[in-house]
Design goal:
With 294 residues, this protein is an all-alpha fold. The protein has eleven helices and two strands. Helix 3 (82-99) packs across helix 5 (123-134) and helix 6 runs parallel beside helix 8. The longest helix has 33 residues, at 261-293.
Amino acid sequence: MKTCSKCGYASPDDSNFCMKCGEYFDTPASTAPSVQPVQGAAEQVDPDKAMEQGFSKIASGDFAGAVERWSAAVRAGLQPSEESYRRMVDGCVDEIVRSSADTATHSRAGISDLAILIDDRDLITDLMAGLRDRAPQLGTQRELMNTMNEYMFLAIESFTVYTDLNDLSAICAEAVRVFDDASSRVGALESAQSKHDPKAFLDNYSQFFGILGSKIDNAVSKTEPSVLEFLSDYWAEKTSRFSDLIMGASNMNAQLIAAGWLGSKVAVKARDMQLDSFITMYLAPGMKQSQQSE
């Protein structure tokens, strides 16, 4: 097993990145790319220049640098045109697919923050759609697995970006379809030569988002539409959301592949506790609001 230097979690030996937090292995912490917050008016930013710098960086393989420059441009007041936005999405998808097996690159660095800044677009789901459409072009099981891992992480990042339960339900349903399709094709691709069955991992991802989607749908069915609308607005104002909790639950679900009978029972219980905690935490402000209005 490989132990993550960031969070301490143990992942399978052939993993390129931590199954819990997404940190790539064999990357010194001091050289890992990071997105530094832009201090608004304190930094003089030419938004048009920053946008173009972002395109230059993504073309050179600097994903984190591109996201930082685009974020700086948006904070300085520039909203991307339709053409610029499509260039951003296409550039990000190209780089995610190219670098998904590169342990020196953290493909998703800062992307959820940028997605929140560009609030009139659906950056996360557009990137997911780009990876979905690219998947049939991949020729090996390892390429497909690496790309689907990135899709999975983006789906989890959506719980930071989107706050409407109906939107999150739709994302989960689409993720199940994407993973099921990838699973159905994996046997026809060049073998990954891994001790872990790629199909089992894809089926595990599908299972997880199916369970998560069902819990969300159950919560939606038991909650008044007006309360759901209140909750979406409430959480949109919060900086701390739910991707970390969902990642932890996904990690527990991943343990089912290698765990024995007893280990599986423990992992299922831990997964369900975390998913139930997400639902409880999300709904809590709505329950309080409903009690106050009575």
